[in-house]
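Fold in tokens:
===
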Amino acid sequence: MSKLLPPWAMSCFDLLVHAEGHHGQEGDIDKRLAVVGFDNAIESAITTYLSLKPIQRNGIEYRSQDIDRWLCNHPSKLRFFYEELDRRNLEHKDNEASLVWYHNIRSDVYHSGAGGIPNEQCRLGVRAAALWVFSVLFEFSDVEIAVREAVARSNPSADTGLNKYLEKRNKPVSIEGITYTPGEVLLAVYPEIYSEMSRTYLKGDANRKPQEQQMNSIHPNLYVGHQGDYEHQVKGQEGWAVVHACKEPYHRQLLGYATRGAPKDDPEYYFAERGSRLYLNLVDAPDPAYIPKEIIDKAIAYIHERLVEGLKVLVHCNQGESRSPGIGFLYLLRETDVLPQSSLDEALAKFRQIYPAFSPSRGISGFIAANWEEYAGGASPSA
């Protein structure tokens, strides 16, 4: 991704992801829902953009009476978008009449059911229009790639190795006389947990190649890496402190909960500290709302304390691509002068030179975008 998705665009992005999930299916209901979803995404993107403060629109200001006029109804919202294209001297990739037609088809499908099954021209057209409108208003050119990645993360495919792992440790489930394997049940009921475990239990499939060494030093005595780096290089070694920046399997194993999430009334719900190890209840969520700031702040404080004690510190998640380098980035931003503090893009570019594998999820990238100025304005460089 060339830049971070702004947090105020997340709800619109989620509409695109939901519609894309239906777009990839063959059922008639999915075809209808895809058209409804993409058309909703167009209107939502325009409404959201016009509701932003100028600072969130790169300083662009509109008169309040013009905003009220544009927000009046669907045709006026489309009129704004095409006026905005002309103001920016951008190409009209689709004409206004086509977007009105997509909306009319959507209304027939949504309100009366009289529209039948939207044809391929409509489905492809409204999808392209929704991606186009989003990319223009939020200046996010990689939106199609990001949407596809988000859909892939939310709809994991079956993992043979993980299924075998689960079958060895859990009993089959019988429902109405039909027997299902533990992997089938987990994938159907909690796909996000299945996906997380698929990334975690790397030894489940005998044919799967082990992770290559990735642990990188991002600052003196501070390392970022993945689960394999901890298990094969750091575990049991003297002189190390470890931040387990992943709920699965470490936080779950430590507290021993079998439910989907940790008990919220547990005093160690967010994090638990045992000796020189910090266990975070942190998942690679697609929404920054599910990245608790308490967890990130605790991790940064813990890293600083252990470094001051003279220990080496490894921060790791499952893949070493999102959560652990995200924490490492924010640590460098707050506690050192390694990264530029005047521009998020510049700081990220510098960090990727230090840790090229950084590929944050929407949740981590959104958290960084929403909070980076606070971290940049934090403690004086001291590590």
User: Anything to note?
Assistant: The longest strand covers residues 240-244. Residues 202-211, 379-383 have pLDDT under 50 and may be disordered. DSSP finds 16 helices and eight strands in the chain. The chain has three domains: 7-153, 160-200, 216-376.
